[in-house]
Amino acid sequence: MTDTQALLDEMNDRSREVFRRVVEGYLETGDPVGSRTLTRTMNEKVSAATIRNVMQDLEFLGLLDSPHVSAGRVPTQLGLRMFVDGLLEVRELENEDREKIDATLSSNDRGMGAMLDRIGAALSGVTRGASLVLAPKREAPIRHIEFVSLAPDRALTVLVFADGHVENRIFQPAPGQTPSSMREAANFLNALVAGRTLSELREVMQVEITRRRQELNELARTMVEAGLAVWENEGQPHERLIVRGRANLLAASAEAEDLDRIRTLFDDLERKRDIVEFLELAEDGEGVRIFIGSENKLFSLSGSSLVVSPYMNADRKIIGAVGVIGPTRLNYGRIVPIVDYTAQLVGKLITDQGKG
Q1: What is the CATH number of the domain that holds 66?
Q2: d(Cα 101, Cα 176) in Å, to the nearest integer?
Q3: Which of these three, 213, 236, 259, is where a domain ends?
């Protein structure tokens, strides 16, 4: 990647001011910024011709682009990256935004999923973008496992975690299951639980099923293996991603080209697998990160930006992330503190819930 800071350092004060004002004007209105507009706002009195020359130099450096025949310019992806890295002024979080996010905590529903859903909805509403909340993986030890028959071809596996959380998953058992085989399967698993997390239990189960194959009733073994398949369900990571406010992206775009890009983004959000993997990149480091356009594989076709921040538990371990997707014309200075505050709030709530 081009060293944007080096580019910025090489620019003189006038070039830097022209560049900054073009980007800020574009982020505010979404329209190309012309030289005549800048002559009214520059700190020093300069002619429109002088500003046009500076713009041409910035275009030659790959920082600005001319989208139409008009003399107006817009920042390129490289230009936006340089602005975000070197010139962005991050504001203080506005009280109104803080209050709207805090208001989600007033509900009596203390369930983690419902709480994260409310926070995602509030984040989307405040930023007028699409919000993403990557829920934490459940790593609490398991206390108890139970199988419940719902119908001849449907059964429920109930996992009770040491922190009081209960998780139910429906699956299709092998034909001919009986209450006896279900009890045997549950007893087999509960003998192995012994404070293990779900991921630890999966590893032990595979070894023990092989080692004690003769001891287990055939039906009980198929029940255990069916339960294992449910827990290894590839769709499980997708359920960790809560997406809210996709309609906001449509409302912000009127041009057909923009709508096509947003439809592509919607397809990405529906698949979810790539986006979960991408959000987990936020686990590489603390703080808010900004990804613009094709800087990542997910949004390369959608002309979108992602502002994302991880959140941590009481042990300062990163366990999830919150983010906002919008057009590359995001108000980054306002969005960054909102995402940062929301991530810290989620981390605190999860820590407090762990103490309860």
Answers
A1: 1.10.10.10
A2: 51
A3: 236
Predicted structure pTM score: 0.73
Query: Contacts from 346-352 at CB under 8 Å and sequence distance 24+?
Result: 346/116, 346/119, 346/133, 346/311, 346/320, 346/322, 347/311, 347/312, 347/313, 347/319, 349/105, 349/115, 350/112, 350/136, 350/311, 350/313, 350/319, 351/313, 351/314
**Same domain, yes or no, for 231 and 328?**
no
pLDDT tens-digit series, residues 290-313: 988 877 666 655 678 889 998 888
Range list of H helices, the chain: 4-10, 13-29, 35-39, 48-60, 77-86, 95-102, 112-127, 179-193, 198-211, 218-231, 236-239, 246-251, 256-271, 273-279, 332-355
Instruction: Return the CATH number at 162.
Output: 3.30.390.10
CA separation, residue 188 to residues 1, 139, 169, 258 (Å) = 54, 21, 18, 56
Same domain, 146 and 218: yes
- What does pLDDT average to over the chain? 81
The yes-or-no verdict on residue 193 having pLDDT over 60 is yes
